[in-house]
């Protein structure tokens, strides 16, 4: 577990909620469950319009973590929140492409693209 029990660092930049992952490996079941709860809590809070997940610190991702992202996408859509993913390392991007999740999620090269549009 990460220090303080939190798995995410969340900041507001130009009206965008930027989410950075504290863990480099999103592949242990307990950690992924906790991560899912934190992400779901974010979409249930009022005031978020754009949620940007920054994967720059992530080295590995389990299928369970991918499943949490799919559920997050659905929850965000129901609440009118735009979900974007950025800074996905090439090895992780291969997992998104192999599962065709690169077609489900809006993936941008880096957070600058999103912030420049806001």
Describe it.
The protein is of the alpha/beta class. It contains five helices and seven strands; from the N terminus they run E-E-E-H-E-E-H-E-H-H-E-H. Strands 1-2-4-6-7 form a five-stranded mixed β-sheet. Strands 3-5 form a two-stranded parallel ribbon. Helix 1 runs parallel beside helix 2 (63-78). The radius of gyration is 13 Å and the shape is globular.
What is the chains' assembly state?
A: single chain
The geometry reads as: globular
Distinct helical segment count = 5
By CATH, the architecture is named: 2-Layer Sandwich
Structural category: alpha/beta
* Gyration radius from CA atoms, angstroms: 13 Å
Main sheet overview: 5 strands, mixed
Strand order of the largest sheet: 1-2-4-6-7
User: Tally of extended strands?
Assistant: 7
CATH third-tier fold name: Transcription Regulator spoIIAA
Low confidence ranges: none
Output the CATH homologous superfamily.
STAS domain
Outline the fold blueprint.
Elements: E1 8-13, E2 16-21, E3 25-26, H1 29-44, E4 50-54, E5 60-61, H2 63-78, E6 82-86, H3 90-98, H4 101-104, E7 106-108, H5 111-117
Parallel strand pairs: 2-4, 3-5, 4-6, 6-7
Antiparallel strand pairs: 1-2
Helix pairs in contact: 1-2
Summarize the structure.
The chain has helices spanning 29-44, 63-78, 90-98, 101-104, 111-117, and strands at residues 8-13, 16-21, 25-26, 50-54, 60-61, 82-86, 106-108.
Labels describing this entry:
single chain; 118 residues; alpha/beta; Transcription Regulator spoIIAA; 5-stranded mixed sheet; two-stranded parallel sheet; 5 helices; 25% strand; globular
């Amino acid at each position: 577990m990460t220090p303080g029990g939190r798995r995410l660092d969340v900041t507001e930049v130009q009206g965008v909620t930027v989410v950075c992952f504290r863990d480099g490996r999103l592949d242990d079941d307990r950690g992924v469950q906790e991560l899912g709860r934190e992400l779901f809590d974010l979409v249930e809070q009022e005031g978020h319009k754009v949620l940007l997940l920054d994967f720059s610190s992530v080295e590995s991702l389990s299928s369970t973590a991918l499943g949490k992202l799919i559920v997050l996408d659905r929850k965000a859509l129901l609440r009118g929140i735009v979900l974007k993913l950025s800074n996905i390392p090439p090895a992780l991007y291969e997992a998104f492409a192999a599962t065709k999740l690169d077609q489900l999620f809006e993936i941008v090269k880096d957070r600058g693209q999103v912030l420049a549009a806001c």
